[in-house]
Specification:
CATH superfamily: Replication Fork Single-Stranded Dna Binding Protein
Structural class: alpha+beta
CATH architecture: Alpha-Beta Complex
Distance between the termini: 51 Å
Radius of gyration: 22 Å
Number of strands: 11
Length: about 350
């Protein structure tokens, strides 16, 4: 486990580098703090990552939302959004962001760019010591997972950099609780008054027993599996279809990334469709990376959206056109600029 000094050094390194700027399977281990009532608070106690090589007691997750007009072949289908991993999460070039970054140079494309920009969140684990939610059931294992957005994360990070914090907040004896407070601002949920408790406190015997019984989670297990070459091509194809205003095609993409509510594909899992030719190819690459469980992505988007610094906002060109025509105009502008 990293020391507080090592965590601070790593955070400083990340800030300098950035210029200052396995799935859960549907269990209810995710604690939905975003569902607490306005004006209430949840008190949680974060725990270390089980990974002995982990510097932080959290994992950063970068996802991209691809909206589609519906699902192909379903006459009454409503718009759906498919979540795919951003390759920057694995230190590699993301085909979607490579395209979208240039959109922010054109005021008429900024809104479209924000739609496809990566959504950042952080996975933590710990105990819920004060729970205002009336949950129908709670898991047998009291160690919960938390999907934390950038607003709360900046509060967590800021306190870690404070020299007055002398011990890791995850320390079993001298750690501190964190209070997630929910208010509202501009019609959106606001967590800016969340804070660390002022008093240190030791874990209870019951909490220590739970750790001994169940063990800590290795948070890497809850990050999406890294897409291979085939999946990256599928992401690029889905992105282009999404911008074109097309429907999600389960026959083309269902083996790789599923729309919410869709069951796992059936049939021969060894015969995958080639994403460029539509013909089966030998099973040479693992190509089954389902979208994240809905429970892990339902935190308010106002908390998880980041984008490059934008120029002065201007009205998007063609706003009075149908969405399909606006999407085509955007593609035409992008392609003409590239040519």
């Amino acid at each position: 486990m990293a020391t507080l000094a090592e965590i601070r050094a790593k955070l400083r390194e990340q800030d300098t580098r950035q210029g200052g700027s396995q799935q859960s399977g549907g269990d209810n281990a995710i604690y939905p703090h975003w569902n607490i009532a306005e004006g209430t608070e949840s008190v949680v106690r974060f725990l270390p990552d089980a990974d002995p090589e982990a510097t932080f007691f959290w994992k950063e997750r970068l996802m991209i939302k691809l909206p589609f007009a519906g699902i192909k072949g379903q006459t009454d289908s409503r718009p759906v959004t498919v979540n795919v991993p951003c390759m920057e999460m694995y230190g590699e070039t993301c085909p979607v962001l490579s395209e979208v970054r240039g959109w922010f140079k054109d005021p008429s494309l900024e809104d479209q760019g924000r739609k496809y920009w990566k959504k950042r969140s952080y996975i933590f684990q710990g105990f819920v010591t004060d729970n205002p939610l009336k949950e129908d059931t709670t898991p047998e294992n009291p160690i919960r997972r938390f999907i934390i957005g950038p607003q709360i994360f900046q509060i967590i990070k800021g306190a870690l950099m404070d020299p007055e914090m002398e011990e890791l907040p995850t320390d079993y004896v001298r750690g501190v609780d964190f209070r997630i407070k929910k208010t509202s601002k501009g019609g959106y949920a606001d967590y800016s008054t969340s804070q660390w408790s002022r008093r240190e406190s030791a874990l209870s015997d019951e909490q220590k027993s739970a750790i001994d019984t169940h063990g800590l989670f290795n948070l890497n297990d809850f990050l999406p599996k890294k897409p291979g070459e085939v999946e990256v091509k599928v992401i690029q194809e889905m992105f282009e279809a999404s911008v074109d205003g097309e429907a999600y095609d389960p026959d083309r993409w269902g083996q790789y990334f599923r729309a919410p509510g869709m069951s796992a594909p059936t049939g021969d899992p060894n015969a995958k469709k080639d994403v460029s030719q539509g013909t089966p190819t030998p099973k040479t690459v693992e190509a089954s990376t389902p979208a994240p469980a809905v429970a892990e992505t339902s935190a308010p988007t106002v908390e998880t959206t980041t984008a490059p610094a934008q120029a002065t906002a201007t009205e998007t060109a063609g706003e009075d056109k149908p969405s399909s025509e606006r999407a085509q105009d955007i593609l035409n502008m992008i392609r003409s600029r590239q040519n």
